[in-house]
Amino acid sequence: MAAATIDRVFFALSDPSRRTIIDRLDAGEATVGEASQDLGIAKASVSQHVGILESAGLIQRQVRGRQHWLSLRPGGFRDAATWLANHEEFWSQSVDRLAELAERLEREESS
Amino acid sequence: MTGATPPVIAIDRVIDASPATVFRAISHPELLSQWLGPEGTSCTVDELEFTVGGRLAFTIAFADGSAVQLHGYYEDIIENRRVLHSWAQLDDVDISTIVWSLEPEGDGTRLRLEHHGLTAPEDVQRNEAGWAHLLDRLAAVVED
Description:
Number of helices of chain B: 3
Strand order of the largest sheet of chain A: 1-3-2
Shape of chain A: elongated
Oligomer: heterodimer
Mean pLDDT of chain B: 82
Strand content of chain B: 35-45%
Number of strands of chain A: 3
Order of helices and strands of chain A: HHEHHEEH
Largest sheet of chain B: 7 strands, antiparallel
Low-confidence stretches of chain A: none
Largest sheet of chain A: 3 strands, antiparallel
Largest interface: A-B, 40 and 47 residues
Helix content of chain A: 55-70%
Number of strands of chain B: 7
Number of helices of chain A: 5
Structural class of chain A: alpha+beta
Mean pLDDT of chain A: 88
Structural class of chain B: alpha+beta
């Protein structure tokens, strides 16, 4: 997973309206109207928010008849979790090795 | 903007060595190559000019024979306290930032590493709520 992709995930979750939409979809599929109900935002903003969530790979859209149905995209968060776990492991093991080296250097110098 | 947004990854360690020793280990190529990379990898420092604007470049070789080349530029250096450098794969356009902070603690050092990301627009503030939300979801995914 590219860094830019996880960045889109972070960006997508930086907005309270978009987080509400995600939380509502947690309960299951919903129309755009249902998912954005009572958010107090204009229709144009709703499609923008939905577009951002889609491009981050967090939700998917299905057109049935005249309704656009939204649902969480399976694996959308898993990609981000994998990316994060790999990077976390890289740094946490590097820092462990750095700590060992620094402690050894200091012991050698003081003896 | 680095300070304003939560890091993607943050690691804290207390090390039983002085800030000066830890600083040396992250700034000298022959020491850096001894620890950079996960267990079982080996690191070759290809270039390291430890000055603001200077470049660091290295290759991490994995046990399976694959290798990754990374590089970055030093953006801030405060001796024994802080190092900030960019971080990217050599063939990748995505640039992130690594911040090392060192503070004396007792006879040792409290080290904090932050990996800040990444390529979001400058005006975006990834606020605390967004971060907490993501962490909750990641935790849920991992526990599945």
